[in-house]
Amino acid sequence: MRHAARLLPILVLAGLIALPVCAQTAPPPASIPRLDAIGTAPSAANIERDIRTLVGFGTRHTLSDTKSSTRGIGAARRWIFDEFTRISKACGGCLEVRYSSGIVQGEPRIPGPVDVVSVIAIQRGSADPNRYVIMSGDIDSRVTDVMNATSDSPGANDNASGVAGTLEAARILSKQRFPGSIVYAALSGEEQGLYGGKILAEQAKKEGWRIVGVLNNDMIGNSAGINGVVDNTTARVFAEGTRATETPEEARQRRFTGGEVDSPTRNLARYIERMATHVPNLDVMMVYRLDRFARGGHHRPFNDLGYPAVRVMETNEHYDRQHQDLRTETDAQGRRRVYGDTIDGVDFDYAAKLTALNAVSLAALATAPPPPAKVSIEGAVSADTTLKWARPDPEQAPNLAGYKVYWRLTTEPRWTHSRWVGDVGAYTLENIVIDNYFFGVAAVATDGSESPVVFPGAAGSFGDY
Ligand SMILES: [Zn+2]
Fold first, then answer.
1. Average pLDDT over every residue of 254-267
2. What is the C-alpha to C-alpha distance for residues 68 and 116, in angstroms, rounded to an integer?
3. Is pLDDT above 50 for 12?
4. Which of 134, 306, 332, 366 has the CA that lies 20 to 30 A from 71?
5. pTM of this structure
6. Taking a C-beta distance cutoff of 8 angstroms, is the pair 73, 138 a contact?
7. How far is the CA of 218 from the centre of ligand 1 (A)?
8. 387, 439 contact by CB (below 8 A)
9. Predicted pLDDT of residue 18
10. How far is the CA of 231 from the centre of ligand 1 (A)?
C-alpha cells in the first residue's frame, strides 16, 4: 500500500505531462447518464391507459369496420394517428405523422381488396436525417378464426402492448433531439400475413432509407408463462443468422472468413443486450433465431430486404391468451380454463421495462455516429490483424469521437474485448492472430454512445453511408 501511495503522485504527474499529446485520442466517457434517465422514464400508467383505449375498440382485426368512430381497425388507427399528433404538438411539431398504406388482395387471409393502413411518426434527425432506427408494434388483433373480423378481439397483449410501448417511447424521446432519425410505427395486417411491415419496408427501400435497426415489439406485457414461470426481469430479443439476401458468392466468401453468427441483426441484438444495463432489473435473453420456432413477426419483412431487425418480446408466453375466442372451458376434472387476450393478463410495469429497453436502444443508436461502412480485415499468415473502414461525411456525424475495435473468441456469444483506437480509418492489433478470433469495429460519439459493432465484409455490413 505504502509503495502504491508513493507512486501515485508520479503517475498523476506523468498523466498531466502526457495530457496535451493524448487529449485528441482520449476515449469518450464510459457511462452515459442520459441513458440511465431514459431507462426509468416509461410510465406503466400511460401504457395501461393506452392498452385500455386500444382494447376499447372491440376488435382491431385487419378486415374489421373502418368507418365507425368507436369500433374496429379504422377507429383504432385514427386514434393512434391523433395520439402521435398530440405527442408532436407537445414537442413543437417534432414528429412527422403519416399513414403508410397499400391495397392487399388475392391472399389467403386477405381475399380483399383491403387497404392495409399503418401509422408512422418520424422524429427527423438533425445531422443525418436519412439514417433511421425504427420501433414498431402491431395494431391488429385476432381470435381463433383468423378470418373472424367481428367478434370481440381485445388483443391486449398481442399486440396493444407493443403499440402502447411505441407511443410511450415517442413521448419520452420526443423531448430530446438526435443526429439520426427515429421512426415510431404502429403496423397493421400482421396477423393476416405481415403486410404492414412489408409495405413499410418496401417504401423504405424505395426511398433509400439507411436503416440501422428495427426493434419490432410483439407481445411485451405477459410475465406469467404457460409453463408456470413468473418472470418480470427478462426480455427476449430474437435475431436471425445469415441475412436472407446473401448472394451465393457472399456465402462462399463467408465460408472461408466467417460471419455466420455476425449478421448486422445479430450485432443489433448484442447491442440491445448491452443496453439493458440502463434498465433496472432487466436482462436480455438473446435468441439466435429469426423468431419463435416456425412463427412470424413484423421484423421479418425488414430482414427479407436485408435490413437489421429483431423481435423484442416477453420471455414467457401464455398461449391461452393468444389468438383465442373469449371463453371459459371446464375440463374433465372440473377445472376452469379461461381463454382470451384480455387486459387482466397484462403486466404494465413489465411492459414499461421492455419499453425502456427499446427507448435506451433507440436513443443510443440515434445519437451514435453511423455504423462503420466498408469494413475489411486482413492478417492471414501474420502475427497481426488489421481492420480498415471508411469514415462518414463529417456532416453526417458531427459528434464522431472515433472508433473502438472489438474481438472475441469464435465460440463466445458476445463481444468480450475492445480497444479504443481514436479517430482513424484503420487499426492494427499487434500479435493478435486473425485465425483465433472474430473482429469488428464500432463508431463512438463524443458522449460515449456507440454504433453497433460491424463485422467485416458483406456478412456483417450495415450498409454504406
Ligand atoms: Zn398474434
1. 97
2. 16
3. no
4. 134
5. 0.94
6. no
7. 8
8. yes
9. 41
10. 21
How remote is the CA of residue 104 from the centroid of ligand 1, in Å? 19
Q: Which whole number is the average pLDDT over 372-393?
A: 97
Average pLDDT of the residues in 269-284: 98
Measured in Å, residue 141 CA sits from the centre of ligand 1 at 7
On the question of a cis peptide bond just before residue 154, with omega within 30 degrees of 0, the verdict is: no
According to the model, what pLDDT value does residue 289 have?
A: 98
- What is the distance between the alpha carbons of residues 95 and 184, in angstroms, rounded to a whole number? 9
Q: Counting beta carbons within 10 angstroms of the beta carbon of residue 294, is it exposed (0 to 12), middle (13 to 18) or buried (19 or more)?
A: exposed
C-alpha cell at 76: 383504432
Q: Give 81 Cα–ligand 1 centroid separation in angstroms.
A: 22
Q: How many angstroms separate the alpha carbon of residue 287 from the centre of ligand 1?
A: 19
C-alpha span between 445 and 75 (Å, rounded):
42
Ligand 1 center to 119 CA (angstroms):
18
Mean pLDDT value across the chain: 94
pLDDT class of 25 with cuts at 50, 70, 90 = confident
461 alpha carbon – ligand 1 mean position (Å)? 31
The average pLDDT across 337-346 equals: 97
Ligand 1 centroid to 219 CA: how many Å?
8
Ligand 1 midpoint to CA 313 (Å): 12
The string of pLDDT tens digits covering residues 163-205 is 999 999 999 999 999 999 999 999 999 999 999 999 999 999 9
- Ligand 1 centroid–CA 394 distance in Å is 43
Give me ligand 1 centre to Cα 4, in Å. 61
CA of 324 to the centre of ligand 1 (A): 10
Distance (angstroms) between ligand 1 centre and the Cα of 40 equals 28
pLDDT tens, position by position, 61-104: 999 999 999 999 999 999 999 999 999 999 999 999 999 999 99
